[in-house]
Amino acid sequence: MAALHVRALPMGLFPRLGEQFVARWHRAYLDSPHAVALVAVRRTGAEEDVVGFLVGATDRLSFHRELLRNHRTALAVRGGLALVTRPAVLSDFTRTRLRPYLRRISGSSEPPVPKWSAPRAPVADLTAVAVATVARRGGAGRRLVETFLTRCAASGTRWAELVTALEPGGAQDFYASTGWSVLHDVVTRDGVSVRHFARRLDLPEGS
Fold this sequence. Notes:
Keywords: Acyltransferase, Transferase
Pfam families: Acetyltransf_10
Distance between the termini: 33 Å
GO molecular function: acyltransferase activity
Largest sheet: 6 strands, mixed
Shape: globular
Number of domains: 1
Order of helices and strands: HHHEEHHHEHEHEE
CATH class: Alpha Beta
Helix content: 40-55%
Structural class: alpha+beta
Strand content: 15-25%
Radius of gyration: 18 Å
Number of strands: 6
Number of helices: 8
Oligomer: single chain
Strand order of the largest sheet: 1-2-3-4-6-5
Protein name: GNAT family N-acetyltransferase
CATH superfamily: Gcn5-related N-acetyltransferase (GNAT)
EC number: 2.3.1.-
CATH architecture: 3-Layer(aba) Sandwich
């Protein structure tokens, strides 16, 4: 999963920190009751190759809190080691992300929730999905996304969001044709144009 993520989804900081960091980050999705990690495999005889993956949160805020509580130290250590051996990435990180990340790690970036506030409706986050070139156009990506959305709906989540890079032949056309609605376009800290999508989820029958 980590190797495919770094190769197929280079956008953002985490893939630039290398496979070991991404693998440790993915592990947080495996351990969480608020997240999903899926793989698509291709079987050749007795061998299996990972040709696709998806990681996402069924409840974005709860997963974020859990990530900071249970995985903050391990991710910070791995991230620090990766930055030391990647001077160009370290320079970009210091310039664009150091202060926000320090606030996030310290837990000060999230305002306290008043005791009188109404219950928060969970929002799902499709964080990353990729399919290897050899397996594309075979429906693996669609099945990964549909399985993720089914699990989100089964958990009671009614709204899902994602972000994808805007590029020729990119995933934005796939999402636009499979029921996702455009929210807005922005430019990231790294100067990459991205599009935010959202989708309303139906609860399973009998819920």
